Amino acid sequence: MTEHFPNAEGEPGAAQRPSAPAPVQGNQQEQGPVVRDRRRIDPETGQVRSEQQSEQQHGRHASPQHETEVTADGASSEADDSALGGAAAQLAAERLVDLQRLQAEYVNYRKRVERDRDVARESAVAGFVEALLPVMDDIYFARQHGDLIEGPPAAIADKFEGVLSKYGVERYGEVGDEFDPNVHDALMHSHSSEVTTTTVTTVMQPGYKIGEKVLRAARVGVSDPE
Fold first, then answer.
1. Could you give the 3-state DSSP secondary structure of residue 2?
2. How confident is the model over 84-99, as pLDDT tens digits?
3. Backbone angles phi, psi at 20, to 5 degrees
4. How far is residue 207's CA from residue 202's CA, in Å, rounded to a whole number?
5. 20 to 30 Å CA-CA from 214: which of 77, 84, 112, 181?
6. What is the pTM of this model?
7. SS3 for 181?
8. Rounded CA gap, 67 and 61, in Å?
Protein backbone atom coordinates (compact mmCIF):
# COMPACT_ATOMS: atom_id res chain seq x y z
CA MET A 1 0.00 0.00 0.00
CA THR A 2 1.43 3.28 -1.01
CA GLU A 3 1.25 6.24 1.31
CA HIS A 4 0.74 9.71 -0.09
CA PHE A 5 1.71 12.91 1.65
CA PRO A 6 0.63 16.35 0.75
CA ASN A 7 3.15 18.46 -1.07
CA ALA A 8 3.88 22.12 -0.51
CA GLU A 9 0.60 23.05 -2.21
CA GLY A 10 -1.37 20.53 -0.18
CA GLU A 11 -1.64 18.10 -3.06
CA PRO A 12 -0.79 14.48 -2.50
CA GLY A 13 2.39 13.20 -4.05
CA ALA A 14 5.02 10.47 -3.89
CA ALA A 15 7.34 10.13 -0.88
CA GLN A 16 10.55 12.15 -1.25
CA ARG A 17 13.74 10.11 -1.33
CA PRO A 18 17.37 11.33 -1.18
CA SER A 19 19.00 11.73 -4.56
CA ALA A 20 21.83 9.34 -5.48
CA PRO A 21 25.34 10.78 -6.04
CA ALA A 22 26.35 11.57 -9.56
CA PRO A 23 28.50 8.90 -11.17
CA VAL A 24 32.25 9.55 -11.57
CA GLN A 25 33.11 10.25 -15.18
CA GLY A 26 35.97 8.39 -16.77
CA ASN A 27 39.00 7.45 -14.59
CA GLN A 28 39.01 10.67 -12.54
CA GLN A 29 40.22 10.01 -8.96
CA GLU A 30 40.50 12.27 -5.97
CA GLN A 31 44.11 13.46 -5.80
CA GLY A 32 45.67 16.59 -4.21
CA PRO A 33 48.43 18.68 -5.82
CA VAL A 34 52.08 17.53 -5.45
CA VAL A 35 54.30 19.66 -3.22
CA ARG A 36 57.73 20.54 -4.54
CA ASP A 37 59.95 21.52 -1.61
CA ARG A 38 62.29 24.20 -2.93
CA ARG A 39 64.17 24.78 0.28
CA ARG A 40 67.96 24.70 -0.20
CA ILE A 41 68.66 23.23 3.25
CA ASP A 42 67.39 19.73 3.92
CA PRO A 43 65.41 19.98 7.21
CA GLU A 44 66.35 16.40 8.11
CA THR A 45 70.08 16.27 7.24
CA GLY A 46 70.92 19.98 7.37
CA GLN A 47 72.80 19.77 4.04
CA VAL A 48 72.42 21.90 0.92
CA ARG A 49 70.46 20.10 -1.76
CA SER A 50 69.68 20.77 -5.41
CA GLU A 51 66.29 21.56 -6.90
CA GLN A 52 65.97 18.08 -8.41
CA GLN A 53 66.77 16.31 -5.14
CA SER A 54 64.20 18.44 -3.35
CA GLU A 55 61.49 17.42 -5.82
CA GLN A 56 62.39 13.72 -5.80
CA GLN A 57 62.90 13.21 -2.06
CA HIS A 58 60.23 15.50 -0.58
CA GLY A 59 57.35 15.47 -3.10
CA ARG A 60 53.99 14.58 -1.46
CA HIS A 61 50.27 15.38 -1.73
CA ALA A 62 49.06 18.55 -0.10
CA SER A 63 46.88 21.49 -0.72
CA PRO A 64 47.90 24.47 -2.88
CA GLN A 65 47.98 26.52 0.30
CA HIS A 66 50.57 24.16 1.77
CA GLU A 67 52.70 24.44 -1.36
CA THR A 68 52.66 28.20 -1.08
CA GLU A 69 53.76 27.99 2.55
CA VAL A 70 56.67 25.69 1.71
CA THR A 71 57.84 28.02 -1.03
CA ALA A 72 57.69 30.93 1.39
CA ASP A 73 59.71 28.92 3.91
CA GLY A 74 62.32 28.27 1.25
CA ALA A 75 62.68 31.97 0.52
CA SER A 76 62.95 32.64 4.23
CA SER A 77 65.66 29.99 4.54
CA GLU A 78 67.65 31.66 1.76
CA ALA A 79 67.38 34.99 3.56
CA ASP A 80 68.50 33.35 6.81
CA ASP A 81 71.45 31.73 5.03
CA SER A 82 72.48 35.11 3.64
CA ALA A 83 72.26 36.71 7.08
CA LEU A 84 74.24 33.87 8.63
CA GLY A 85 76.88 34.19 5.92
CA GLY A 86 77.30 37.91 6.64
CA ALA A 87 77.54 37.28 10.38
CA ALA A 88 80.11 34.53 9.80
CA ALA A 89 82.23 36.83 7.60
CA GLN A 90 82.14 39.57 10.24
CA LEU A 91 83.08 37.08 12.96
CA ALA A 92 85.96 35.76 10.84
CA ALA A 93 87.25 39.31 10.32
CA GLU A 94 87.13 39.99 14.06
CA ARG A 95 88.97 36.75 14.80
CA LEU A 96 91.62 37.67 12.21
CA VAL A 97 92.21 41.02 13.91
CA ASP A 98 92.49 39.28 17.29
CA LEU A 99 94.96 36.78 15.84
CA GLN A 100 97.11 39.52 14.35
CA ARG A 101 97.15 41.40 17.64
CA LEU A 102 98.13 38.26 19.56
CA GLN A 103 100.87 37.53 17.03
CA ALA A 104 102.28 41.05 17.43
CA GLU A 105 102.17 40.72 21.21
CA TYR A 106 103.97 37.38 21.00
CA VAL A 107 106.70 38.82 18.76
CA ASN A 108 107.23 41.71 21.19
CA TYR A 109 107.27 39.30 24.12
CA ARG A 110 109.87 37.09 22.42
CA LYS A 111 112.10 40.09 21.67
CA ARG A 112 111.79 41.29 25.26
CA VAL A 113 112.67 37.82 26.59
CA GLU A 114 115.71 37.58 24.32
CA ARG A 115 116.85 41.05 25.36
CA ASP A 116 116.42 40.21 29.05
CA ARG A 117 118.30 36.94 28.51
CA ASP A 118 121.23 38.79 26.95
CA VAL A 119 121.28 41.31 29.79
CA ALA A 120 121.20 38.53 32.38
CA ARG A 121 124.03 36.71 30.59
CA GLU A 122 126.19 39.84 30.43
CA SER A 123 125.53 40.56 34.10
CA ALA A 124 126.54 37.02 35.09
CA VAL A 125 129.73 37.15 33.01
CA ALA A 126 130.55 40.63 34.33
CA GLY A 127 130.20 39.51 37.93
CA PHE A 128 132.47 36.51 37.29
CA VAL A 129 135.11 38.58 35.48
CA GLU A 130 135.14 41.25 38.20
CA ALA A 131 136.00 38.52 40.70
CA LEU A 132 138.95 37.52 38.50
CA LEU A 133 140.36 41.03 38.01
CA PRO A 134 143.21 40.57 40.52
CA VAL A 135 144.33 37.40 38.71
CA MET A 136 144.13 39.16 35.36
CA ASP A 137 146.23 42.05 36.71
CA ASP A 138 148.91 39.62 37.88
CA ILE A 139 149.04 38.01 34.44
CA TYR A 140 149.28 41.43 32.78
CA PHE A 141 152.15 42.68 34.96
CA ALA A 142 153.94 39.34 34.68
CA ARG A 143 153.91 39.72 30.91
CA GLN A 144 155.18 43.31 31.25
CA HIS A 145 158.15 42.07 33.29
CA GLY A 146 158.89 39.18 30.92
CA ASP A 147 157.92 36.40 33.32
CA LEU A 148 155.39 34.78 30.95
CA ILE A 149 157.34 34.54 27.75
CA GLU A 150 157.43 30.76 27.48
CA GLY A 151 156.85 27.60 29.46
CA PRO A 152 153.75 26.06 31.09
CA PRO A 153 152.76 29.24 33.01
CA ALA A 154 152.69 31.21 29.75
CA ALA A 155 150.55 28.52 28.10
CA ILE A 156 148.12 28.52 31.03
CA ALA A 157 147.87 32.32 30.95
CA ASP A 158 147.16 32.22 27.20
CA LYS A 159 144.38 29.65 27.66
CA PHE A 160 142.89 31.67 30.51
CA GLU A 161 142.77 34.87 28.47
CA GLY A 162 141.43 32.94 25.47
CA VAL A 163 138.47 31.68 27.51
CA LEU A 164 137.68 35.21 28.69
CA SER A 165 137.82 36.55 25.12
CA LYS A 166 135.16 34.00 24.09
CA TYR A 167 132.77 35.69 26.52
CA GLY A 168 133.52 39.12 25.05
CA VAL A 169 136.01 40.26 27.71
CA GLU A 170 138.39 42.85 26.28
CA ARG A 171 141.42 44.48 27.87
CA TYR A 172 142.23 48.06 26.89
CA GLY A 173 144.55 50.88 27.93
CA GLU A 174 147.87 51.27 26.12
CA VAL A 175 150.54 53.95 26.12
CA GLY A 176 149.85 56.43 23.34
CA ASP A 177 146.05 56.14 23.48
CA GLU A 178 144.07 59.36 23.46
CA PHE A 179 142.63 60.06 26.87
CA ASP A 180 138.91 59.39 27.17
CA PRO A 181 137.33 60.25 30.52
CA ASN A 182 134.57 57.68 29.86
CA VAL A 183 136.98 54.74 29.90
CA HIS A 184 140.12 56.14 31.56
CA ASP A 185 140.81 57.18 35.13
CA ALA A 186 143.63 59.70 35.10
CA LEU A 187 145.71 59.46 38.29
CA MET A 188 148.70 61.54 37.10
CA HIS A 189 148.93 64.65 34.95
CA SER A 190 151.93 66.19 33.25
CA HIS A 191 152.72 68.47 30.31
CA SER A 192 154.69 67.63 27.23
CA SER A 193 155.55 69.36 24.00
CA GLU A 194 155.48 66.02 22.17
CA VAL A 195 151.69 65.66 22.33
CA THR A 196 148.95 67.73 20.77
CA THR A 197 146.09 66.24 22.82
CA THR A 198 145.80 64.69 26.25
CA THR A 199 147.51 61.34 25.79
CA VAL A 200 148.04 58.24 27.95
CA THR A 201 151.74 58.03 28.91
CA THR A 202 151.60 55.49 31.75
CA VAL A 203 149.32 52.48 32.40
CA MET A 204 149.04 51.63 36.08
CA GLN A 205 146.17 49.15 35.68
CA PRO A 206 144.58 48.12 32.40
CA GLY A 207 140.86 48.47 31.91
CA TYR A 208 138.39 45.72 31.05
CA LYS A 209 135.03 45.81 29.34
CA ILE A 210 132.42 43.49 27.83
CA GLY A 211 131.01 45.00 24.69
CA GLU A 212 130.19 48.59 25.63
CA LYS A 213 130.00 47.89 29.37
CA VAL A 214 133.11 48.99 31.26
CA LEU A 215 134.00 46.55 34.05
CA ARG A 216 136.84 48.71 35.29
CA ALA A 217 138.24 51.94 33.92
CA ALA A 218 141.92 51.94 33.00
CA ARG A 219 144.01 53.74 35.59
CA VAL A 220 146.56 55.78 33.72
CA GLY A 221 148.90 58.75 33.79
CA VAL A 222 148.38 61.36 31.06
CA SER A 223 150.29 64.23 29.52
CA ASP A 224 148.65 67.45 28.41
CA PRO A 225 150.07 69.58 25.57
CA GLU A 226 152.07 72.67 26.67
1. coil
2. 777 888 888 888 999 9
3. -75, 150
4. 13
5. 112
6. 0.51
7. coil
8. 9
